[in-house]
Design brief:
About 10% of the residues lie in helices and about 40% in strands. It is mostly beta strands. The strands form five sheets. It has a 21-stranded parallel β-sheet that branches.
Length: about 375
């Protein structure tokens, strides 16, 4: 009831005088939603509300608003551009946004204008999104983050989405910040980045307390495909498991030239059960390599486990392809029981510098570490 009151005032440019506020408060006390107080700047979506669709609430909202979403299975796909909004579900298990394989579930920002759109998504399940092929595009099936947009994704599930580009679950190329915290990214598929494919110039990506599992890419990065340039990327307390691709089964991080390199920090995480399996006659870079991770830019790996990953060529656990002088630093890392078909069961250093402190590389097959000419094992 207060929803109609506040929206009406906005539409007609009315000020909310003391009498009007008192009247609205009385309606709250006697209305059917008396226990759910909605303040100005809060729009509610539910089957019996004035707004019954999420897109309708997004269209009615102004920057800074919060859209509260009641339990339900919402068959729609959402576009948010030029507004700083929060979409807040009551519970991620009971608020399901289902795009029915018709479009991306949530698209943030405008690809044509790079309009700033910082958006927060909380306590939602995003499923059955589909991003059709766009030449050179990074468009996610579950979420697309366009240039200029920023995403804060919390306590949500991105599951069962598809992209014919990069980013089955989440995809985009942005100079903004992407924070993914306490989420599940699972069973998504794409050409690159089955779970997540994100990139940008001078951007920031933070992933924490998240499960990235059972995602599939036909080419690069089953779990994650990281395409950032001159950016900061961190994964902490995150599990990347049972993902598959031809290159970088768990994670693929693209290598860049001097001045364009990003830095990856991994901490307190686990990479297990991922596989890099080359298809017959594949022409992909390093096909069948980097079962757990293929790291191309400088990285620091702290207190992390890399175990039970598989590669049909090199680097069952990790393949290093960094040309940066700073190289890859392993601190308190366990690389155990990984398998490669040809070399570097635990770690294959194709190029670059790898240093290790308090690190265990053991019980891998056919060997624990193998280095190409000019490189070395730690």
């Amino acid at each position: 009831m207060i929803l109609g009151f506040t929206q009406g005032a906005r539409a007609h440019g009315q000020s909310l005088g003391a009498g009007s506020i008192l009247g609205a408060a009385t309606i709250f006390l006697i209305g059917s939603f008396a226990s759910e107080v909605a303040f100005a700047g809060t729009l509610k979506v539910c089957p019996t509300c004035a707004l019954t669709t999420i897109q309708g609430a997004v269209d009615a909202a102004v920057s800074g608003d919060t859209v509260l979403i009641s339990a339900g299975h919402y068959l729609e796909h959402i576009r948010i551009a030029g507004k700083a909004l929060t979409l807040q579900g009551v519970d991620r298990d009971s608020v399901i946004i289902d795009a029915e394989d018709k479009a991306t579930v949530v698209t943030i920002g405008d690809l044509r204008t790079a309009v700033e759109s910082p958006v927060t998504l909380r306590d939602l399940t995003l499923t059955r999104g589909f991003a059709p092929f766009v030449d050179g595009g990074i468009t996610g099936g579950g979420i697309t983050v366009n240039p200029g947009a920023s995403l804060n994704l919390r306590h949500s599930v991105v599951v069962g989405n598809k992209s014919q580009n990069a980013g089955g679950g989440i995809g985009g190329f942005s100079t903004g910040t992407v924070d993914i915290v306490d989420c599940i990214i699972a069973q998504n598929t794409a050409v690159d980045g089955g779970g997540i494919a994100l990139g940008g110039d001078h951007g920031t990506l933070n992933i924490a307390d998240t499960d990235i599992s059972r995602n599939t890419a036909t080419d690069f990065g089953g779990g994650l495909n990281l395409l950032y340039r001159s950016s900061t990327i961190s994964l902490s307390r995150t599990t990347v498991s049972d993902n598959s691709a031809q290159t970088g089964g768990g994670v693929f991080m693209e290598a860049h030239l001097q001045g364009m390199r990003s830095h990856l920090t991994l901490a307190d995480s686990q990479f297990s059960g991922n596989s890099a399996l080359a298809q017959p006659h594949s022409q992909l870079f390093a096909a069948g390599s980097g079962g757990g991770l293929l790291i191309g830019d400088p990285a620091t790996v702290n207190r992390t486990i890399v175990a039970h990953n598989t590669a049909s060529a090199t680097g069952g656990g990790i393949r290093v392809d960094s040309i940066a002088s700073t190289g890859i630093a392993l601190n308190d890392v366990f690389i155990v029981q990984n398998q490669a078909a040809t070399a570097g069961g635990g770690l294959f250093n194709a190029r670059g510098i790898v240093t290790a402190t308090k690190t265990t590389i053991t019980d891998n097959s056919p060997d624990n570490c193998k280095a190409a000419t000019g490189a070395s094992c730690p």
